[in-house]
Design brief:
heterodimer, A: alpha/beta, 6-stranded mixed β-sheet, 4-stranded antiparallel β-sheet, 9 helices, B: mainly alpha, 0% strand
Amino acid sequence: MTQPPLLELQEITCRFGGLVALDRVSFSVHSGEIFGLIGPNGAGKTTLFNLISGVTVASAGKVCWRGESILALPPHRRNRLGMARTFQNLRLFDRLTVLENLMATMQRQPSSERERLRSAWQLLEELGLIQLADRDAGTLAYGDRRRLEIARALATRPKLLLLDEPAAGLNPSEKDGLCRLISALRSRHQLTVMVIEHHVPLLMRLCDRMAVLDFGVRIALGSPEQIRHDPRVIEAYLGGAV
Amino acid sequence: MIDNGLLVQMLLGALLGLSVYLPLSAGQLSLATPAFYAVGGTLAALLSTRWSALGATAAGSLPPASFLLVLILGGLLAGGLAVVVGQLVLRLRGIYLAISTIALVEIVRVAILNLPFTGGAVGIFSIPQPFSEAGGYLVPALAMLGLTAALCHRLETLPLGRAMGAIREDELAARCMGIDTTRVKLIAFVISAVVAGSTGALAAHFLNTWNARQGSFDVSVTTLAFVILGGSRTWLGPVAGGLLLTALPELLRPVGDVRLVVFGLVILLGPVIFPGGLVTTGLLERLGRSFVPRRHSASEVR
């Protein structure tokens, strides 16, 4: 176990004016695992994703990638290191076609147009979007848009995939499908996955480990089984006994 | 009605339209085109009138090779200026970028008006001409337009052009997907400046005289109108807009003084009647898919 974790957060703090969105949050994500992040609304989950992907700057603390600090790197450099994300409120390139959404993110590799097309086509097939390849992304149904965002992230060939509420707005059967999809993608692309999700049962099934945030503080960390029985988590979700 | 002189002006209009279109296709509303146009034109005017090595004769003619060199230098100077200015102004977005580029146009205009060697309000006149008549300029103007249009066309299937499209659609998402948005925006801005600079250099010779009024805020608005009326989704839009809107005031000459009112009405009503511009992707798809290289069909891959 001498190898440093793929991603490590050390005492990450983030303040917006007087509001402490994240308060000394630490944890590591190891290669190959599916790591869940849960917490009530406003707990700081998305802020944490923004910090990891470089969109927001941390007020204090450190973000390390394979043991090296990446705090100074802008988002596109972090993506090139091997992390790609999706967005809670979908940010597709709406007036580009589905295929172009993927092609646009393949800037460096593969290097030939032919390879790029082949690789994009493969991803579309994998995510069941192949019939929609020529449609403008903005015209797709909601569930398809969610999957396209995942496909677009995968097109950058990430090692770490950050999914921000991928199941939001999906019906129960779509949620099951997504669950299977994420597991399948992990093994096929040798991914490490970090998922933010409100739907706790889904996460419990999917994740190897999870962290719970409440008001910017990490109140629990461990396997789904440990989380399920953690008194602080039960208190945060159900309210404390008076 | 359309003589060679007007044709050249129409081609120059199309070139300026493309210069506005390039940053706009990366989502950047830059109105700096007239500044680079003025810089290119001024450099060309100065070089051709003062640099004896270019071989301008007393009769006012200029060897074609010198003319070509001046076109290139005009583009390069404008491009160099864009590298410096772009790093500053491209930090701004939307209307803030528009305002700061208008400021650049004003700064360049006032500088050309007041610099000791640019001829003040009169400007620089008797600029030597490589061609004895207006028709001669059709060849270099067409060549430049062809070159620029080909570049824009090619861009649509290159990673750079795709990155520009992604930035136009959602800059934050583009950054998170590994696109160096600062660099891509700067490249688009610099190409736009080179096109405008060379166009200015050509225009200076064609017009025979050059002064600060050539690159004014009016030109910012007119060139933007080329793109809005023509359409900003493919390079054909600004070309069509530039050609039409440059010709229109001349074609309306028989109407008399109301022609400028009609011209204004066209600019006003154009976007109302054609919301996406005259040339839209929908129109091109109806005309035939060959025009739209961006769309890949499934059969292409398998």
